[in-house]
Design goal:
heterodimer; A: Alpha-Beta Plaits; VC0802-like; B: alpha+beta; Alpha-Beta Plaits; 2 domains; seven-stranded antiparallel sheet; 9 strands
């Protein structure tokens, strides 16, 4: 059975546009055949990490693996990154570190840390069922020349990660392109 | 005898219908803006997106419903050389993840142990969506259910109906 309903938005509606600053984006290359190890690594990391996960996302990367991103609410302590770096270079980390470096050996490469970064995010009605939302968001930022480090959309949520100092510009650009509860219409019309 | 490890509680597990995962190849000469504009112009919903700029320009994946494949192929014809498509794909959404790296790590391990592919991941504040082989969906659900406990009377579900914007 099909039911048709008519709904028209002159401007795409959001439930509000939010931002967070002072975040840390950690990127790793993970071979497909080491996903099992990576899961173990994340599990161990969870027990030692002082940071909280904000987002996790990935995409396929050549030759046969995933580019895995962790957006954290603060950077991992230097000692943790040193351990990962040591594993990446296959060198021996400081023996005082009590985490077994072999646990990381070969599981990850291509460590990259972008810190600090900022996040702008918003949700809206039935975004997961509608076309053009991500395109509208990226176009709004491109028109204002706001750079993007990453875009993540799932369900009714859109997340845009920007370099530091750019979240406010991004939020303003989105506020002009989308409707918000504060304005009921595009901020450019207020 | 060692008792089995306790399962991690979650609120639910949602499965998508059959999907196509489209990837814009890095340094292809085309931008994701073009890709998403082409899809939007043809009214094609991209139900999961994961893009990053670690290779320079923004690149990454978007998932569309399998029924939109022909339309998408036509829409993306100008970018065809810059794209690859994986199909059939299914999105499995676990909610809430509550920012538990432990949970996410164990899920990845379980899928890896069973040699199940993970083609992509995207989370929100509450849910984690990952894409895998649609043909091995039951295996993927079994792997995840070794790790998680679902509420009583809850089974992994597929939505009974879909909303489509024309």
């Amino acid at each position: 059975m099909e039911t048709f309903a008519v709904y028209w938005e002159p401007i795409i509606k959001t439930y509000g546009i939010s931002e967070r600053t002072g975040l840390c984006l950690v990127t790793l290359d993970l071979p497909f055949h080491r996903i099992n190890d990576a899961g173990g690594w994340l599990t161990r990391l969870a027990s030692r990490f002082d940071s909280s996960l904000v987002l996790i996302f990935s995409r396929p990367a050549t030759p046969a693996g995933l580019k895995l991103h962790l957006l954290l609410d603060k950077p991992p302590e230097k000692v943790e990154l040193d351990k990962i770096n040591a594993a990446e270079k296959n060198t021996q980390p400081d023996p005082s570190m009590d985490m077994n470096p072999d646990a990381f050996d070969g599981a990850f490469s291509g460590l990259r840390v972008d810190n600090p970064v900022e996040l702008v995010y918003f949700q809206g009605p039935h975004y997961g069922d509608r076309y053009g939302i991500a395109s509208a968001a990226m176009t709004a930022l491109a028109e204002k020349k706001v750079p993007l480090l990453a875009v993540v959309c799932t369900g009714a949520s859109v997340y845009l990660i920007t370099p530091t100092g750019k979240a406010l510009e991004a939020r303003k650009a989105l506020g002009q392109a989308f409707s918000t509860p504060q304005t009921g219409k595009s901020e450019s019309e207020t | 005898m060692q008792s089995p490890l306790p399962k991690l509680p979650i609120g639910g597990l949602k499965l998508s219908s059959e999907l196509i995962q489209i990837r814009l190849l890095p340094n292809s000469g085309f931008s994701v803006h073009e890709m998403f504009r082409c899809l939007a112009d043809h009214k094609i919903n991209v139900m999961m997106v994961s893009l990053d700029a670690t290779d320079g320009e923004l690149t990454g994946i978007g998932c569309i419903f399998a029924e939109d494949r022909l339309l998408a192929e036509a829409a993306l014809k100008p970018l065809a050389a810059a794209l690859d498509m994986i199909s059939p794909v299914c999105a499995m959404t676990i909610f809430p993840h509550q920012a538990r790296l432990l949970l996410i790590g164990k899920i990845l391990s379980a899928l890896g142990e069973d040699k199940l592919p993970v083609y992509g991941m995207a989370s929100s504040h509450s849910a984690l969506t990952l894409t895998t082989d649609y043909r091995r969906l039951d295996d993927a659900v079994s792997a995840v259910c070794r790790i998680v406990s679902l509420p009583e009377n809850h089974a992994p579900f597929r939505p009974d109906f879909r909303i489509k914007q024309f």
